[in-house]
Design goal:
The structure holds two protein chains of two kinds.
Chain A (H helix, E strand, L loop, with lengths): L4 H33 L12 E6 L6 H11 L2 E6 L3 H15 L2 E5 L2 H7 L40 E7 L1 E5 L5 H4 L14 E4 L2 H16 L19 H14 L3 E5 L2 H10 L4 E4 L2 H11 L7 E4 L7 E9 L7 H13 L2 H11 L2 E2 L9 H6 L12 E2 L6 H13 L1
Parallel strand pairs in A: 1-2, 1-3, 6-7, 10-12
Antiparallel strand pairs in A: 3-10, 4-10, 4-11, 5-8, 5-9
Helix pairs in contact in A: 6-7, 7-13, 8-9
Chain B lengths: L1 H32 L2 E3 L2 E3 L5 H8 L1 H35 L4 H7 L8 H12 L4 H8 L12 H25 L4 H8 L4 H12 L1 H16 L3 H6 L7 H9 L5 H25 L14
Antiparallel strand pairs in B: 1-2
Helix pairs in contact in B: 1-13, 2-13, 3-7, 3-10, 7-10, 8-9, 12-13
Classes of the chains: A alpha/beta, B mainly alpha.
Chain lengths: ~400, ~290
């Protein structure tokens, strides 16, 4: 078969026209797709337009956030959570791509780092880390350092305990020095605990292990005692004790406002909390707004729970401008004047030494001379088996 | 063609909507319920352990029984209150009928959390009620502070407007002349009500009851904020699995059980009643 040039050309013309149309359509489609995707596809070297944080709401102080946004011409986009497990769940289901910064406390940052949910950071770019109290320096506070590589993966921020706030006129000091006060029938109907299942079980676990004499004995895992790692026998005793405690409780509070109202009204006389409500009550007393006197037992004699809030950078953040912004964000928030504002707003003690800009009353109220007590506290951690702990909590709730 | 396309379009869109937003999530829940979790990790191996736990751990059965009791009590109370209210609006509302009905929707202009927190303020130890009592020198009412009674009050407050609206709409479509006919033929007002008005509005009443009962069964916020140490209901326990405890697979199994119980109850009611005698007009003339 012989093809004439003409016929060949004829055949080629419509084909060329068809290809052109397709090309045009493809170009339009690609252009549209690029236009739509452009805001989401940014080269790693480009300056970020927003900084996304997964954090506790109380720490998002508008004044500091606004100044930071202005300085970097960036939008700070926070998402709030209630507890570590909630943040952990969010990070594990793709949150490392959705957030640049995340907050956590206790042993949780270490877990995040082991699971590659967060990345290493550079303390040299966060000079304010040098101003932390000695107990929070990396040589003593080891929860933010990878023991194998020595890499740091977080900065400390605020700290506290899960101590007992109590009405001084109603609860004798010698009683509140023990966790037993939360299980004392003498205060039936006038006690409350938080609704957090981990801390209820862990705190009761300290008491149970003290009573059983297992706290200071060698542990099955060969490690020092950790109230978040309890044996089945200890958990069974915890369950019994929590069930005995139920009739003594007026409620399990869900938020600090409720706890404040309960204490203020005299409906309850003692409750374990993060000392934030205690500080609000003391300040109200100083202003003459309430009559009752409240005090806070930081560490019970059996041992108590403690926490150190931290800022971490997610593994979704690559080296470059976003990481630089993250470093500067942490450094800005750790500046002493900003930490003072945050302490006032959140009612939390800071890990940064702000004594030089605080009054003696503030130093006492925010436990600035008691930071060393942190080393005696058991840090918040992940339960050894959330399934077993959930059963204990459910059985207690149903009892 | 137009005649064929319209039903397909009007039924097709809701079907797609239901499949995408109801059936698929339910199926995913079903799948999740036969997996397991281990310290916040989902382990994808097929097993029925979660259902075994639900069947053998008395706690979850206790939560379910508590929720069924609470939902029944709240729905009955709502229905008992809603009937005279709706009937009153119907009889005496005059030209303000619509206004009265809309007034019941006012609480819906705020979120459920806000309404519950407002109620917590009302019933709590420093709430309005106890504040007045204490100001008068009386002891505070402990029965409404963090108890199941407080939860029930909260749930009635949340769902009463729905029940009133549904019963009112049923009465609105009810032919009042039937009552006139009954009284003309010698029936007392009470007899006319129980033999004409009530049965012919039973379907509307059941819908109102169901719209209160089903959400009460899975209520989370009211028991959490008002219920106190003994107030944990099934929905609250289920939410706990998806929250801090991270035992999602068990939570999914609880959700499947709750769905099955709800469907079972609806089927029982449907089998027990002859819908044709309840004022239901959806069967057409056939």
């Amino acid at each position: 078969m012989t093809k004439s040039p003409c016929s060949s050309l004829d055949a080629a013309v419509p084909s060329a026209t068809s290809l052109d149309r397709r090309s045009v359509l493809k170009t339009i489609a690609a252009g549209a797709a690029t236009a739509v995707a452009m805001p989401y596809i940014r080269p790693a070297s480009a300056a970020p337009t927003q900084l996304r944080a997964l954090m506790w709401e109380v720490y998002a102080v508008p004044e500091i956030v606004a100044a930071f946004e202005e300085k970097h011409k960036i939008k700070f986009a926070p998402t709030f959570f209630d507890g570590n497990s909630e943040a952990y769940n969010k990070l594990r289901v793709g949150g490392t791509k959705d957030f640049d910064l995340v907050q956590a406390d206790g042993f949780w940052p270490g877990l995040y780092f082991r699971e590659k949910l967060i990345r290493a950071i550079d303390y040299a770019k966060i000079p304010n880390t040098a101003n932390v109290f000695p107990v929070f320096k990396p040589d003593r506070f080891k929860l933010l350092t990878d023991q194998t590589t020595g890499a740091h993966f977080g900065v400390t921020w605020c700290w506290g305990s899960y101590g007992t706030t109590y009405n001084v006129a109603e609860v004798p000091k010698e009683k509140v020095q023990s966790i037993e006060v939360l299980f004392d029938p003498a205060f039936a109907g006038r006690l409350a605990t938080s609704a957090r299942f981990e801390e209820n079980i862990a705190l009761t676990g300290i008491l149970v292990c003290t009573r059983m004499g297992t706290k200071d004995k060698p542990r099955p895992d060969g490690k020092p005692f950790n109230p978040y790692v309890l044996t089945d026998e200890e958990l069974a005793e915890v369950e019994k004790l929590l069930i005995q405690q139920k009739p003594l409780l007026l409620t399990r509070y869900n938020d600090n406002n409720t706890l404040q109202q309960l204490l203020e009204s005299g409906a309850i006389v003692a409750a374990p909390e993060f000392a934030q409500t205690y500080r609000v009550l003391v300040q109200k007393k100083a202003k003459g707004e309430i009559q009752a006197d409240f005090a806070h037992q930081l560490t019970p004699k059996e041992g108590g729970l403690g926490w150190v809030d931290t800022w971490l950078v997610t593994s979704g953040v690559a080296d470059g401008p976003t990481l630089d912004i993250c470093h500067d964000f942490m450094n800005t928030f750790l500046a002493a004047p900003n930490m003072k504002k945050i302490a006032e707003v959140a009612g939390a003690s800071t890990t940064i030494d702000i004594r030089s800009i605080s009054t003696p009353e503030e130093q006492k109220l925010f436990l600035m001379d008691r930071t060393e007590e942190l080393s005696t506290l058991y840090q918040f951690d992940q339960p050894s088996s959330t399934e077993k702990w959930e059963r204990v909590w459910s059985r207690m709730q149903a009892a | 063609m137009k005649g064929r396309a319209a039903p397909a379009l009007f039924l097709g869109i809701p079907t797609v909507f239901l499949v995408a937003l109801f059936v698929l999530p339910l199926l995913s829940m079903l799948v999740l319920s036969v997996w397991r979790t281990e310290n916040y990790h989902i382990i994808r191996d097929f097993n029925l352990h979660n259902y075994y736990v639900l069947a053998t751990e008395g706690a979850y059965m206790t939560f379910l029984v508590r929720s069924l009791t609470m939902a029944t009590a709240v729905s009955v109370i709502c229905t008992l209150i809603a009937w005279p209210v709706a009937y009153g609006i119907m009889l005496y509302g005059g030209r303000y009928k619509l206004l009265f009905t809309l007034a019941f929707a006012v609480p819906f202009l705020t979120g459920e959390v806000l309404r519950i927190i407002a109620l917590q303020g009302l019933l709590g130890p420093v709430g309005l009620l106890n504040g007045v009592l204490m100001a008068l020198g009386a002891a505070p009412l402990r029965v409404i502070m963090y108890t199941n009674v407080a939860s029930a009050i909260g749930l009635v407050y949340l769902y009463l407007p729905i029940v009133v609206t549904v019963i009112y709409l049923s009465l609105l479509n009810f032919d009042q002349r039937l009552i006139d006919a009954a009284t003309i033929f010698g029936a007392s007002p009470a007899r006319a009500f129980f033999e004409v008005t009530w049965p012919l509005n039973l379907f509307g009443t059941l819908i109102g009851f169901a719209l209160c009962f089903i959400p009460c069964l899975s209520a989370t916020l009211a028991p959490r904020f008002l219920g106190g140490p003994n107030g944990t209901l099934y929905g609250m326990a289920m939410a706990q699995q998806f929250g801090e405890s991270g035992t999602w697979a068990l939570g999914a199994a609880m959700g499947v059980v709750l769905f099955a119980v709800s469907v079972l109850l609806v089927v029982i009611v449907a089998k027990t009643l002859d819908l044709r005698r309840t004022g239901f007009t959806g069967f057409g003339r056939g």
